[in-house]
Amino acid sequence: MLLKDKLVLVSGASRGLGAAVSRAAHREGAWVVVNYFNSPDMASDLVEELGSRALAVQADVRSLAAVQQMIQKGQEWASRPVTGLVNNALVDYQFNGDARDKLEAFEWAVMLKQLEGTVGGSLNTLKACFEGMCKAGKGSVVNVGTNLFQNPVVPYHDYTASKGALLALTRTAAKEWGSQGIRVNMVSGGLLRKTDASAATPDAVFDLIAQSTPLGHVTTPAEMADAIVFLLSDLARGVTGQNLVVDGGLVMN
Fold first, then answer.
1. Using an 8 Å Cβ cutoff, are 240 and 38 in contact?
2. Cβ distance 227 to 170 under 8 Å?
3. Whether 36 is catalytic
4. In degrees, to the nearest 5, what angle opens at C-alpha 231 toward C-alphas 33 and 89?
5. What is d(CA 124, CA 136) in angstroms, rounded to the nearest whole number?
6. Topology of the domain comprising 7-246
7. Strand locations in 131-208 (E)
8. Tens digit of pLDDT for each residue in 208-250?
9. Could you read off the pLDDT of 169-190 as tens digits, one per residue?
10. Parallel, antiparallel, or unpaired for β 243-246 and 182-189?
11. pTM check: above 0.85
């Protein structure tokens, strides 16, 4: 088991990619804190599915105090520090390019909302987990990014910009915390088939992506979750500050 007895916190974990990561981490032996914000029933159902090594904790990652309380609760429950962190939480977003504002109509407040959730939320979880990882002498952080950096085919200006800022934070954190034994990486997917966030995407778009991808299909949440588990595990002990693109080869670095 790649994550046996590690305590892993997954933000935004009650559904979609976060739920897939929780399942994959649990499968590999981790104790999993399933963070949620507005989906208590889905989080409860997931914990019931996973069993005794899973705990649902409500917290708005935009609040440092709430995140600190969540970390404390999780660590007391599992009797060990959080040494695996997945920053996946996404604030109220639907992937439907036809419904997004074009740049000339874009409002800074919309941009700020995504920056606060994606970058601010990740900063809070990083800060709250740091002490425990230092005491353990190691830790692994995986931030969820996007392949829209390299292939900006839809006008998701706020989403793409916030993930770009998160990539910068990923690399500066990796540089600063490497001496503490803490690795920080990013996994960037494309459109996933399917999550609640991508449910509004027309089927024709999924089909077009599949036709353009060497593997001939749209990446699933489970496929991306397995890549995240790899980076959380000791198999990736020599990897930090990297952005791993998991989209079936649609974008090639």
1. no
2. no
3. no
4. 45
5. 19
6. Rossmann fold (3.40.50)
7. 139-146, 182-189
8. 888 888 988 888 999 999 999 999 999 999 999 999 999 889 8
9. 999 999 999 999 999 999 999 8
10. parallel
11. yes
